[in-house]
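Supplementary Methods, section 5.1.

A reviewer requested that the exact input to the structure prediction be made available. We therefore reproduce it here, unchanged from the version used in the analyses.
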Amino acid sequence: MIDAPVNVAAALAPAAVPARISGFVGVVDLLNEQRIQRMAITATNERAAVTVPPRRRWQGISWTAWFWVAPALILLGVFFIWPLIDTIWLSLQNADSTVFVGLKNYTLIFTSPNLLDVLKNNLLWLVVATILTVGLGLVIAVLVDRVRIESIIKSAIFIPMAISFVGAGVIWRFMYIYEPANTIQIGLLNAVLSIFHIGPQVWTINEAINNFALIAVYVWMWTGFSMVIISAALKGIPDDVIEAAKIDGASRLTMFWRVTIPMIAPTLSVVTITMLINILKIFDVVYVMTGGNYHTSVVAMEFYNQLFNFSNFGLGSAFAVLLTIVILPVMYLNIRRLRAEEGMR
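The structure derived from this sequence is encoded token-by-token as follows.
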């Protein structure tokens, strides 16, 4: 009778071991869960402490940031904002800045026949030069894409970019040299015309063609830039898209308009905006080749003449302000396009 309880306890002992083990595991799991929760809370508090912004702030920007930005803001105010304000004020005064005349200088720009020619010339530059530089750059980039001598052709067309506008103006003055008829023509273009028994032309004096002669210099220089940028965009078109278009039976012309142009449209807009900004402030070529004479003056050239040659500070400043106003929308479109592309990424 005494051994029976002992035997029963001994018999039940193996069954009690798993129960004790499972109870221990449960306690351990509970402790682990509590430890993990405490670690998570601690990590959360640490992250919160790290991301808490500094208390010393003014309109969302810390004083430390203002300290580092201050030199740039000072330079911007001294060399950009103040000159801009001063130029606007000068444009509202007379030639020697002694009498306030309001918008008289601006009215003169849009009513004087000579000054209207300046605006027309700038408009001609904008239309013709932009179309030719971007158009020729696109055509050349497409034609030489993936051909054997692609690098040689691109290098030859891009070389004029290494020349300054002043240097290019001097070179093309020799190209346009005029000699009287029945004499030896030392200007290249007139020498070529003499081969075909065509009389020599005064390229930079003839008002019917002189603006186009100046535009040709700009196109010669900047077509290489447009070609290189557009060519890089062409290299970025996936081969799968081209192969799919070929399989669908698309002709070369169809591929150009339906595949190539849409795929490189952002690049074309960048090149076009760059050309517009350059042309709006064109000065060097006109100054070197004609000095703005013979009805070839543009806005930047007229601004220079009025300010430095004629000492008309009011009208010269008005041209500078007008040029700034025209460039601002182009810059805004460029910035807006860049932000849109960043948003897409």
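The longest strand covers residues 57-58. These observations are discussed further in the main text.
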